[in-house]
């Protein structure tokens, strides 16, 4: 017990709610000897038991005991057993816990008075998340997956072409890590270096559908392959006069790539029916966001986007100017997300019984967005594609997705995470490191947001090509 | 962030005196301690406790788990279940955020009602008001043979559970199941973006908790 040489505090200092009971003026030093009846000697009576405010591990501050005036703490017992570091200073008493639990301590004060302290210390919320590996039994498509050398839990993209820099990363969400389940997100980048033509893709498998992860993967792979096979057609479309209209040549190609991807999935489900009769297209539900980018010889840039489902696509110019290119894509009544596989998405273009689709124009106008940037304006341009694992924590509502200021803040955070100013990221070697840093940045901690996260960023160098 | 509000309505009438009320206190303590160790529940679930005896009282307002402190509870008086339901609806209006264009509101509240006897006030109006709103998973628990199961079924037609008696083992089992249900719903929010709404998606109740 540490003796206090300070004088007994003024009797007038009674905080509200504390009663004055058996108050006695003790001369200095007298409190060295525990009195026979401690309670009666207390000038200030603390509540007994005294429940302290809860504390959560993971902060540095510790808890400063909210002591009323007139209380001279001598010691706190029980701290060693509880692993709590105790600091008695002139400013007060600080308790610094090292582990979580419900603790019962004993506080000695004012010459032999004592009360029980009850204290709840919460674990550091971030320490509770575990990283578990999915079990092999879940790998129904294991053979298929073994053929590709991509890590199931993460993915990176880092490329440069024609004065454009492409960075991307996909990360298994904390929820999936904790549950020991797989990443449902996927991404893809197709490039035609010579022509400065790029297709960026992200897809998010529906959490509630059993093979959605495989759905996302198949959709991306299918489109990547298909666009490679049809690159001449895409190039011709870029050259056509209608390239800048949603229902124009490029928009139509994107819409049809999506339609073909869905059709391919449908065929795969049908082909597997002999063995897996219970598979449905819905089991493979996934969103699809795409942006086709064309760098022109003049330095100008064309963007054509296509989207089904949540997540976001937006561009930000170097100084001022922004546009959200993806559409808010929820069911009209239930607010549920739409997917590439959802029948209602295709209702306007796919009539039953194989009848000829009749309104691709309307379909494209609803889902395709186009933008052209003159060479001057294109410099320093940033284009973002992301799944809802990124857009939800940063924007929360559809309304906020339309706010340029929020996008600027978001972009600042991304570049800060990468440790570079937004454009001119550097050489190819550095680029891979930046993609890894982007992946690390995607581990950002925003409570309540632990979904898989996928982000693709394309920037136009701000020097002339 | 969208919260998952959880309202616990606990009967603290005279018949709960002794073992039942002590078991409720232990149950609550166990519930909070367990939820605090689950990362999904810890940041999603918010708890409120409403007690009812001769009158109803919100002893803990809707509070996040990290700052939640166990209330002082003692038993005595009648069973003002009607007043408790009215108070629940009032608290919801005051505490639960609605979705607007600018912000995402909270999830629909989960409600767990524990009672061991017949209501002593007029419940019809309160039940009507409760029924006129949409709630998340809501469960009535008849603790022991004294509770009016038929009446409880008019409050939560989808789920009424029953304990053979309001003893320590049964109540502990009930609180354990409530805990597991909150964890499951928080998990569902974080993994598939929506809480558990279907009762059959909840963890199966332990043998002490019988579905009526």
What can you tell me about this protein's structure?
The complex is a heterodimer of chains A (465) and B (212). Chain A has 465 residues and is an alpha+beta fold. Chain A is 25% helix and 25% strand. Chain A has helices at residues 142-146, 174-179, 212-229, 231-239, 249-272, 343-346, 360-367, 375-378, 388-395, 404-418, 428-441, and strands at residues 50-51, 55-56, 63-64, 73-77, 84-89, 92-97, 101-109, 113-122, 154-161, 164-171, 185-192, 197-204, 288-295, 301-308, 312-316, 322-324, 368-373, 382-386, 453-460. The longest helix of chain A is centred in the middle third of the chain and has 24 residues, at 249-272. Chain B has 212 residues and is an alpha/beta fold. A 7-stranded mixed beta sheet of chain B has the order 3-2-1-4-5-6-7, with helices on both faces. In chain B, helix 4 links the parallel strand 4 (110-115) and strand 5 (138-143). The model of chain B has no long low-confidence stretch (mean pLDDT 93). The chains are: A alpha+beta (465), B alpha/beta (212). At the A-B interface, helix 2 of A face helix 2 and helix 6 of B.
Proportion of strand residues of chain A? 25-35%
Our Rg estimate of chain B from Cα atoms comes to 16 Å
In terms of quaternary structure, the protein is heterodimer
- Alpha plus pi helix count of chain A: 11
Overall pLDDT score of chain B: 93
Share of helix among residues of chain B?
25-40%
Q: Tell me the total number of β-strands of chain B.
A: 7
Largest sheet of chain A, if any? 6 strands, antiparallel
The greatest interface between two protein chains, and residues involved on each side, is:
A-B, 32 and 25 residues
